[in-house]
Amino acid sequence: MTAQIATRRNDVSVFETMESEVRLYCRKFPVVFNRARGAELYAEDGRTYLDFFCGAGSLNYGHNHPHIKRQLAAYLEADGLMHGLDMHTAAKRGFLTRFQEVVLEPRGLDHKVQFCGPTGTDAVEAALKLARKATGRSGIVSFTGAYHGMSRGSLAVTGGRRARAAGGMHSGDVTFVPYEDGPFGAFDSIGYLERLLADSSSGMDIPAAVIVEPLQMEGGVYPASREWLRGLRELTSRHGILLICDEIQAGCGRTGTFFCFEHAEIEPDIITLSKSISGYGLPMSLTIFKRALDVWAPGEHTGTFRGNQLAFVAAGAALDVWRRTDFRTNLAVATRGLTRFGDAVAEGEPAVRVRGRGMALGIDLGRAGGAKRADLVQKQCFDGGLIVELSGRQDEVVKVMPPLTIDPARMRRGLDILDTALTATR
Ligand code: PMP
Q1: Domains in the chain, start-ordered, CATH in brackets?
Q2: CA 287 to ligand 1 center in whole angstroms
Q3: Whole-prediction pTM value?
Q4: Residue 296 phi/psi, 5° resolution?
């Protein structure tokens, strides 16, 4: 039996027989990928796909960026330490030093860094636990449309009913408030929260923290406005509530600034980062928080894989790329191209709502064919050689996230495929 398994090109039988029904993305893109470079993925049958999904935001620098790859290869070749729990290692020191120099210091952030492990959800778990411990309160405010992860704590602050049901969640001490915008229209979230906090009979205790995505990606690509985020910061500060910004998907340069919240010029108390922080698709997750909040006792939030040394090496190298002028110039050109495309789509079909920021674009087909059309668009894109993912409450939004490093020719080619699919399904 084993000998017969998966030897033909694009043979997916081993996955279908052995892998759990929980698998998701492979169903939408049913080929076997074996190589990738820059904006392109290659399947075993020789087909090339442009990747405008980027590992759900983990590959902002594209696949196998040459500068990062060289540093990784050198580290491996030199027998660099591969597993280090949370011990002091040269690789971790290299990352921390560069993170301080490139990210924290220039933004005037005096935050401490906690390495969580190994993926985004654990950074959220740590953020929530720390907020509760530091304030001695248990309530958390989250927003409709939010996505923060699939483990118990992060799922509790995630909006989706289906995901919550699968995790056996109930609302508990989490209060959901409508986000600034969503499929049901605009909402005065700040005014509503203000009212709940001011009214001693509102039924809501003063929460430990508010957790927010400055740009909701899974919720359907809804960017929060500068005013809304500033209002949220002002309100939380005034009531002594911690503000957690989840930058896991929209951070690390996706929206043009390193953190998405920078657009609003606010300073969150706690920030979660993962996905593209390692720049190479290696698992890494961080919770960073104001110095005064560091109330952890040693080992209170621990884990075996909080020290992925290769991820530290890659993350340091990725910050080199982030600093480069040619990278910035390319990013500006790519962003203009994507924005122009979004504007043209909105103009050509007014029922389509187009939203986004920087290199994150959402094409909302909610009132223009809905989830059925979005599914068709995704399939046609894939057939045409382009990978895009859907988001939103019913998967009605086409989420477009090309690598930040994409060249104009490939950008054009990808957007042409998407345009053809949108036109064909009109
Ligand atoms: N927060 C946000 C905003 C996310 O987009 C995600 C992942 N899509 C997570 C948290 C959870 O990260 P992970 O899947 O790596 O656990």
Answers
A1: 2-64+325-424 (3.90.1150.10), 67-322 (3.40.640.10)
A2: 13
A3: 0.97
A4: -60, 140
